[in-house]
Amino acid sequence: MALPDWQILELGHPKLRKLAQPVTNIHSLESQELLDDLLTFVAQKQGMGIAAPQVGINQQIFIMCSHPNQRYPHAPLMEPTCVINPMILQSSEETEKGWEGCLSIPGMRALVPRSTSVSVRYMTRDGETIETTYDGFLARIFQHENDHLHGRLFIDRAESTLDLMTEKQWRQAILGEQ
Fold first, then answer.
1. Which of 57, 77, 137, 177 has a 20 to 30 Å separation from 69 between CA atoms?
2. In this structure, are residues 146 and 84 in contact, taking their beta carbons and an 8 Å threshold?
3. Whole-model pTM?
4. Contact at 8 Å (CB) between 89 and 95?
5. What are 61-120's pLDDT values in tens digits?
6. pLDDT of 18-69, one tens digit each?
7. φ and ψ at 45, to 5 degrees?
8. Which residues pair with 50 in a beta bridge?
9. How far apart are the C-alpha atoms of 3 and 97, rounded to whole Å?
10. Contacts from 23-29 at CB under 8 Å and sequence distance 24+?
11. Residue 21 and residue 74: Cα distance in Å, rounded?
12. How large is the C-alpha radius of gyration of the chain?
């Protein structure tokens, strides 16, 4: 499948700060093609997820697709999951700081506090309502992508500018790369 002709919107683009609109017809050809394109796009970009607003589409859709890689060698493997009109029903009081990056903020990493567990509700591409709980790294991905639907970026959640690092520094300090 060909890569959609999209540009990832980067920090400073006003569309990244808009509140995304709910999807009203999941079964429409347009919605289904969008989901297919997002799945293809995130796979080819090798991301852990992508939200529709990151490619300029103002809809409450994101893809979660955790997989071990060089940056996150201990990430759990999951089937790419289409998340439509999500809602966080409950967040754990327990939080944990973890390193995050984003396709919309290339070259930057931040130590971001997130709830360690979230109970969520969303619709699948088939229109099925899912209620589940994500823990650990998957909870982090869900919260990160869901933030995009509310006009928030991971750096907004950093507690201090001291928790920000360039990708190059992060690779050296955290991954031990030269």
1. 57
2. no
3. 0.94
4. no
5. 999 999 988 778 889 999 999 999 999 999 999 999 999 999 999 999 999 999 999 999
6. 999 999 999 999 999 999 999 999 988 888 999 999 999 999 999 999 998 8
7. -85, -10
8. 63
9. 33
10. 23/59, 23/60, 23/61, 23/84, 23/85, 23/123, 26/84, 26/123, 26/125, 26/126, 26/127, 27/127
11. 34
12. 16
Dihedral (C-alpha) 54, 99, 43, 106: value to the nearest 10 degrees?
50
Select which of 79, 96, 131, 145 is catalytic.
Answer: 145
Which pair of tokens denotes residue 65? 């697709």
Q: How many CB atoms lie within 10 A of CB 33?
A: 11
Give the per-residue pLDDT at 4: 66
Please say whether the dihedral angle defined by the alpha carbons of residues 38, 39, 41 and 46, taken in this order, is positive or negative: positive
